């Protein structure tokens, strides 16, 4: 970039972070001058200039049409102009790197180069309304000094909970043993040979999982995971932070924690933080104030402290903050693996199929959802679950997205409730949204007083679906836990896997539940999936049913070592891959234990094609009803009629604001809003297109900040959308929040527009790139129309996305940014390397290296 040999390149454009920037707010063409000035003492030949990558929206011209064969002499003191035209056609941020080549008149000299970065930003009103509220300034991570301290206990949120459920079954601490750090070091370094008990632990990890080593192996894996969590949570410690008093509740203090809504760090209601007054830090002995989390609101925490602390609190007081993580979730898993052994669940967890199948034919079932009767696999699965043919082995319902796993499970639960008078059912899922969905699907056919949805205190009441308010444990603004006896009266309890642990603690006896169902079982670590099983299921009499798809989102873990030794394998996947009862034989799967569903009833066949080929060996059959999946096949905004899939390429910018580490992309938001308005306002009910309401549309994006900005754009900025009837029911959420869900129309905003942040995505397991499972879930939620808005160049660096974009292009579904002549960073790097090479090697062949770095398109033009 440096000016060289007296040549300076300046322009009329504003310089921002070493870039020449032009910012416009309207369509049109904009001309700006670049100045090549000779400030040296001798003549210089201007031999060439070229953008290193071709951008259709930029044009460069000069009066003499400089070429190598016809260079322009620039004498000392002279300035020569190059005209840049920016064609603003579509909102976005467009960047170009331009290389200028010169040669001094001395014949023996070699060419030299100067590079300039040019960025053009075409923004509209919405982009401006959503712009960063203040520049991004990452917060400094600090390791707090080891000082002696005492802890001042804070105010817990639980105080308002009506708790009639006793604590009958002990939950021990399961503290991480001291040797775990040494073991971690040894396991990370293959050259180190462990001795004594560390050797025993290493051998335990290397021995295949069996019922004999079940609890010991899982305890060890969980400790390894916890050790990594402890290291990771320290990254979030903060210095010199201030708090403010909450406006609604003066007893709470508000602390800003950017990233908390994306689980960076993960903080739930009821967790606690430790705060030390900054001014006390030099003291030999300090007090750490415990603040309990009463609410998590986007990037803010509302904390409850002791009254002593509150009376000494003054605004702008500075603190050091240490995050802790809630060990409860680890402890519940430790207890579960122990209870699995104590309750002898060997035939459930390592089934051998030793018991004879029940004989005799049962009368045929009349299903609530008659459509399932037409699918032999689903119908058989429901009958087999009701008959309990796999007992004590678990019954598995697995298959790709939209094949009806959840509806099969729900139908089986309804049939059990109807046909087996003594049936008591526990229905679980790893996430709240999946558990809510189970409950919502049960309600149309089961009396609401027979079903009870139990939430943990950490669940924000605002997120509870209105349809479940009458059958859950939220009472007014507070949660309650009914007594054991009251809970045992319900025929069906629905909860997350973790919250099922409270039922174990509450002393519900093993064998009370005749059937336990776990949906989305591929999403949970085995030790998590069994929290609601171990201690509640009696192996000889109970029936366990697992449903899921190992190709969708799996467990999220922190420790590479725990993953290496198998903690990332879900119970569902372990049974399917390691247990002979669940393997595919010559005649397919054994229907006594497993049903594989392969008929997709959700999506238009064009939407299914890529996930089907990439993740399901093409086995998936598109069986959704033609009428409903074709509703948008004639939509006027489709690039190609009959292909209800759009990839809209945009050239945006991934931005951050304030101290939030999360990303957003306002150019993509503009496009998403455009499509939303086309769907809801301009083409509603037009030309054979069915009417659609906001609840039938879902917007998926991987970053929390983009979720927040999209919601703001829809509910606050756009004057037509914000007053649109039912707009609050339009769900905008992360992929995790959409797992198990479907919508008639799905719009995906991928956000990423810069290669430099891809490592952050990989490190924190966020974003879409390098994450096939997240891609799979997002792409398989739409029934009749899928619109993906993203930067095709960045996404194409990932083989899965590249194939998807190619597919859309081949089928005519690609639109937006003209890609034909745009290349990725790799090509630019090659061209920059070509420049440097020539300088480094000091070769002067008399031939310019320009051919090596100029874009072919540019050469043709010249
Ligand atoms: N036999 C069937 N006939 C018609 N429609 C069906 C049938 N089975 C399921 N469906 C419909 O297919 C859609 C997907 O079903 P469901 O959500 O149960 O699938 P899933 O396998 O659990 O999906 P995911 O893996 O994405 O969670 C739903 O709209 C459901 O009503």
From TrEMBL:
GO biological process terms on file: regulatory ncRNA-mediated gene silencing
EC number per UniProt: 3.6.4.13
Coiled-coil stretches noted in the UniProt entry, renumbered to this chain: none
InterPro entries documented for this protein: AAA+_ATPase, DNA2/NAM7-like_C, DNA2/NAM7_AAA_11, Helicase_ATP-bd, MOV-10-like_beta-barrel, MOV-10/SDE3_DEXXQ/H-box, Mov-10_helical, MOV-10_Ig-like
Localization (cell): Cytoplasm, P-body
Catalysed conversion reaction: ATP + H2O = ADP + phosphate + H(+)
GO-annotated molecular function: 5'-3' RNA helicase activity; ATP binding; DNA helicase activity; hydrolase activity; RNA binding
Domain Helicase ATP-binding: start-end pairs: 386-555
PROSITE patterns in UniProt: HELICASE_ATP_BIND_1
A Pfam family matched in the record: MOV-10_Ig-like
Annotated keywords: ATP-binding, Cytoplasm, Helicase, Hydrolase, Nucleotide-binding, RNA-binding, RNA-mediated gene silencing
The keyword Nucleotide-binding appears for this protein: yes
Location (main, coarse): cytoplasm
GO cellular component, one term: P-body
Presence of the UniProt keyword RNA-binding in the record: yes
Function noted in UniProt: Probable RNA helicase. Required for RNA-mediated gene silencing by the RNA-induced silencing complex (RISC). Required for both miRNA-mediated translational repression and miRNA-mediated cleavage of complementary mRNAs by RISC.
PANTHER family the UniProt entry points to: CANCER/TESTIS ANTIGEN 55 (PTHR45418), CANCER_TESTIS ANTIGEN 55 (PTHR45418:SF1)
Family: Belongs to the DNA2/NAM7 helicase family. SDE3 subfamily.
Protein name: RNA helicase
Species assigned in the record: Astyanax mexicanus (Blind cave fish)
Phylogenetic placement of the source organism: Eukaryota, Metazoa, Chordata, Craniata, Vertebrata
């Amino acid at each position: 970039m440096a000016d060289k040999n007296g040549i300076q390149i300046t322009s009329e454009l504003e310089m921002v972070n070493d870039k020449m920037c032009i910012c416009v707010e309207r369509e049109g063409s904009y001309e700006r001058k670049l100045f090549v000035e000779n400030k040296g003492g001798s003549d210089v030949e201007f031999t060439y200039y070229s953008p290193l990558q071709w951008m259709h929206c930029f044009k460069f011209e000069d009066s003499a049409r400089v070429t190598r064969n016809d260079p322009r002499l620039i004498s000392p003191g002279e300035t020569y102009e190059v005209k840049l035209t920016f064609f603003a056609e579509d909102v976005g941020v467009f960047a170009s790197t331009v290389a200028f080549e010169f040669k001094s008149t001395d014949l023996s000299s070699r060419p030299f180069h100067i590079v300039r970065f040019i960025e053009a930003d075409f923004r509209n009103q919405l982009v401006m309304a959503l712009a960063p509220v203040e520049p991004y300034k990452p917060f400094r991570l600090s390791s707090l000094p080891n000082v002696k301290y005492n802890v001042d206990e804070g105010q817990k949120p639980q105080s308002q909970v009506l708790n009639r459920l006793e604590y009958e079954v002990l939950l021990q601490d399961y503290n991480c043993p001291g040797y775990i750090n040494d073991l971690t070091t040894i396991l990370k370094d293959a050259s180190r040979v462990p001795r004594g008990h560390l050797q025993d632990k290493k051998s335990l990890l290397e021995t295949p999982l069996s019922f004999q080593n079940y609890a010991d192996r899982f305890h060890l894996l969980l400790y390894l995971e916890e050790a990594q969590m402890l290291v990771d949570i320290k990254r979030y410690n903060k210095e010199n932070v201030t708090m403010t008093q909450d406006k609604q509740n003066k007893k709470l203090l508000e602390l800003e924690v950017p990233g908390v809504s994306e689980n960076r760090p993960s903080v739930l209601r009821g967790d606690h933080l430790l705060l030390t007054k900054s001014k006390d830090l030099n003291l030999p002995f300090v007090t750490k104030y415990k603040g309990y989390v009463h609410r998590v609101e986007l990037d803010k925490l509302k904390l409850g402290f002791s009254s002593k602390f509150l009376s000494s609190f003054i605004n702008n007081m500075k603190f050091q903050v240490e995050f802790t993580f809630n060990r409860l979730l680890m402890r519940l898993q430790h207890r579960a693996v122990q209870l699995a052994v104590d309750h002898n669940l060997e035939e459930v967890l390592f089934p051998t199929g030793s018991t004879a199948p029940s004989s005799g034919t049962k009368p045929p079932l009349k299903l609530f959802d008659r459509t399932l009767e037409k699918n032999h696999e689903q119908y058989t699965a429901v009958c087999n679950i009701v008959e309990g043919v796999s007992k004590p082995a678990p019954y598995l319902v697995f298959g790709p997205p939209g094949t009806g796993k959840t509806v099969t499970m729900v139908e089986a639960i309804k049939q059990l409730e109807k046909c087996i008078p003594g049936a008591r059912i526990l229905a679980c899922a790893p996430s709240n949204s999946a558990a809510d969905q189970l409950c919502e699907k049960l309600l149309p056919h089961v009396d609401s007083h027979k079903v009870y949805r139990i939430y943990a205190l950490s669940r924000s009441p605002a997120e509870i679906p209105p349809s479940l308010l009458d059958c859950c444990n939220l009472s007014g603004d507070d949660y309650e836990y009914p007594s054991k006896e009251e809970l045992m009266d319900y025929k069906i309890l629905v909860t997350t896997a973790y919250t099922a642990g409270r039922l174990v603690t509450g002393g519900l006896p093993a064998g009370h539940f005749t059937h336990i169902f776990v949906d989305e079982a591929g999403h949970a670590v085995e030790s998590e999936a069994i929290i609601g099983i171990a201690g509640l299921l009696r192996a000889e009499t109970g029936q366990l049913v697992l449903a899921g798809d190992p190709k969708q989102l799996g467990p999220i873990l922190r420790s590479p070592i725990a993953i290496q030794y198998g903690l990332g394998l879900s119970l569902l996947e372990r049974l399917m891959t390691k247990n002979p009862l669940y393997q595919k034989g010559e005649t397919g799967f054994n229907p006594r234990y497993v049903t594989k569903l392969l008929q997709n009833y959700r999506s238009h066949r064009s939407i299914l094609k890529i996930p089907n080929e990439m993740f399901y060996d093409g086995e998936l059959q598109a069986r959704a009803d033609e009428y409903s999946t074709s509703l948008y096949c004639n939509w006027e905004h489709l690039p190609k009629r009959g292909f209800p899939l759009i990839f809209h390429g945009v050239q945006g910018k991934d931005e951050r604001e304030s101290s939030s580490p999360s990303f957003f992309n306002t150019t993509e938001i503009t496009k998403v809003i455009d499509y939303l308005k086309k769907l809801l306002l301009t083409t509603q009910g037009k030309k054979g297109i069915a009417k659609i309401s906001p609840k039938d549309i879902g917007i998926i994006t991987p970053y929390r900040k983009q979720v927040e900005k999209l919601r703001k754009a829809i509910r606050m900025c756009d004057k037509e959308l914000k007053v649109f009837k039912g707009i609050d029911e339009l769900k905008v959420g992360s992929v995790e929040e959409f797992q198990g869900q479907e919508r008639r129309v799905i719009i995906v905003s991928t956000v990423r527009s810069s290669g430099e942040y891809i490592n952050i995505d990989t490190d924190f397991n966020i974003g879409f790139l390098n994450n096939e499972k997240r891609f799979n879930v997002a792409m398989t939620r739409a029934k009749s129309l899928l619109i993906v808005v993203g930067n095709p160049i960045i996404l194409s660096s990932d083989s899965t996305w590249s194939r998807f974009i190619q597919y859309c292009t081949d089928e005519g579904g690609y639109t937006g940014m003209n890609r034909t002549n745009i290349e990725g960073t790799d090509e630019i790097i090659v061209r920059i390397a070509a420049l440097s090479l020539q300088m480094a090697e000091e070769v002067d062949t008399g031939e310019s290296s320009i051919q090596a770095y100029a874009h072919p398109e540019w050469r043709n033009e010249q």
